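The following record pairs a protein chain with its ligand, glutamine.
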Amino acid sequence: LHPTYARMPVTIFEHMSGLARELGAINLGQGFPDGAPPQALLEALARASAERSHQYPPMAGFPELRKAVAGFYERTQGLELTPENVIVTSGATEAVASAILTVVSQGDEVLLFAPAYDAYAPLVRRAGGVPVFLALQAPDWRYERSAIEAAITPRTRALVLNDPLNPTGTVASPEDLAMIAGVCRTHDLFAICDEVWENVRFDGRAHASLLAQPGMAERALKIGSAGKIFGATGWKVGWIVGAPEVAAVVARAHQFLTFTTPPMLQFAVAEALDEAAIAKACTASWEQTRAVLLEGLDREGFVTLPSAATWFSCIDLPASGIPLDDRTFSERAVREALVTSIPLSSLWEGDHTPTHIARLCHCKPAPMLEDAISRLARWR
Ligand code: GLN
């Protein structure tokens, strides 16, 4: 057995959701909405299921979905794309794996900003690469050109930019994006852009893709997720956008990971992407759940870090009067308060690990959020 996996624990998300299931806790750990996805998406699924083939779709995805993704990004982010720019994957994690396998060769160094989603480093290592972590600093999690350049060596091949950033909920500024693109051009780096939270933004906060920066179209792969846009995380429909000649190589990696993605899901997502109102309504509903969580936490004296995106809010434990490190907090809160959270340090490798922050998921019904907040407040 490969020692990487033989020794590896299950992901923090599965660990915490497993405890939530076992203990009957309110699960504000792993990110997923509690209710059904939009009715229009379910109707599109029923139609596709009744009327379309149930056999293998084309390996790179149905032209209908590739076209819908291109159109969605043209309307929402001003990108000029054709279906040849898009490869459909079975979720964004598969997209990340395909992108890393495409870009990273033996011995290549890959810059990862910490906090980093926990799939990146193991996938870089399995591709033969070496993850190099660059710590961002709470509470702003700013990107510093000098720190990035100091980490670059002749072996550096790529960087991974998760923007908006999970777990912090922060969004790169236009200046950040211009700076990071400049670093990529100067040092001939490839950018893997995990933008699955691109549509989960609040307070009117804008998001732009690193792929749209000058000179980046040929050296960036942008990853998106229908699960995040429509709140249907179990569907596992994602995609990768890149220059057609790069996307064609990504497809070679994808063909031996999952090969394809269920046809009815692809058709339903294509229809939903074409109806701008569906994605907008999802974002609007999460703006409300976010307010419920933030207001409730504030009322009970919990201190949250600034954020403007994702389904998550982070609480500062010591500032909230909780004298526990994040892992102890999460392990005890699920058992004693029956509320599940994610310790931020579980998404961190390398130096300067903060251990005072826990992540809570807000895309849940208001009564569930209120119940979780009062449980935490009583227990604290
Ligand atoms: N992206 C999800 C989160 O951050 C987890 C996804 C997973 O568990 N595979 O909560």
